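[Automated response] Your request has been received and processed.

Submitted sequence:
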Amino acid sequence: MSEPLRVLVVEDSESDTLLIVRELRLGGFEPAFERVETPATMRAALDVHEWDLVISDCSMPGFGGPAALRLCQERGVDAPFISVSGTMAESAGVEMLKAGAHDYLTKSNLGRLAPTVRRELLAARERRARQQAEAARAHLAAIVESCTDAIFSKTLDGTILSWNSGAERLYGFTAQEMIGQSVSRLVPAYRPNELPEILKRIGRGERVQAVETIRLRKDGSAVEVSLTISPIKDGVGRIIGASTVARDITQSKQEEFDRLRLIQELTGVLERLQTQAEGWSSAQSESAS
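Generated structure:
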């Protein structure tokens, strides 16, 4: 089955354009193409459609490969640009590559066109995938950095790899002070088994959810935190580390303590009132008799 392909052909010869299209069809493509030969018509074509491929004659009267390439770059066209020419010198082809073209070939060697196009389309897809992944990582990093919770990552032996501003606020250590250090720096000495057990669970692929514990700040003071720790996997599914989200629960713990104390006080008052009522009732009974 032929692969659909949207091709913008910058060419002043209709017959040469048909030769190019023919080679693409022979190579397994089904091109939908438009031929342009001036800057104005090329701009219009770029405005109306999104193209998978641009093929441009290197030299035309008043227009040509270098100008067409610049126009694509100005418009941010992320599609392979292949320069072709009837009499392209090696030096001219090299200059086109230096300027940003993806490949060049002569019209006498159009048999190379389809393989070249297929290679460059694959490279373009991989490039876009990398760009999307990088954008996603940057977006995630921005979210992590702006989060009020402490978020950091570490290796399976506990070495810290990243440290957000929330972690700086919670623990008092800067990223420079913590990256490369062991997370055990945050664990009180009287909890020696807690960290090894968490790392073992992570190594087994388990997620540690909302564990309430104690951690140490830079000044040595203790802080009550709720930890959620998740495995980090590589591209093939191997566990290579862990991400930790730590939330300061000092205030909620204090509020819970105050609530329980209030309940105890109210219970005590009710018990005293009940005792007084029973005493009053007993006294009334004795008086009546």
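Summary generated for your ticket: The chain has a mean pLDDT of 87. The CA atoms of residues 55 and 70 lie 13 Å apart.
If you did not submit this request, please reply to this message.
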